[in-house]
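Hypothesis: this fold can be encoded by more than one sequence.
Test: take the structure tokens below, design a sequence, compare later.
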């Protein structure tokens, strides 16, 4: 395999060319993005917040039930 020999003075130029190409590609892709409307953002945010509270309540109940069952097992098998 032959390796391409790049002089020290060419490395910064190649790096700058790569960065410019990246920024140009990024700008082109950002023009293609379809952003949600403010109404959609509010609706999805409300769903995420409601789901977070629902899961928190569910895990709170399950955690309490499991901890009470484990405590009853410890009390039943503990030496008296």
């Amino acid at each position: 395999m032959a390796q391409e020999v790049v002089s020290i003075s060419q490395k910064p130029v190649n790096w700058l060319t790569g960065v410019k190409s990246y920024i140009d590609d990024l700008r082109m892709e950002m023009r293609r993005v379809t952003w949600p409307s403010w109404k959609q953002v509010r609706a999805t945010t409300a769903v995420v917040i409601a789901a977070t509270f629902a899961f928190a309540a569910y895990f709170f109940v399950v955690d309490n039930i499991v901890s009470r069952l484990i405590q009853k097992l410890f009390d039943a098998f503990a030496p008296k």
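The longest helix spans residues 38-77. The chain has two helices and no strands.
Hypothesis status: open.
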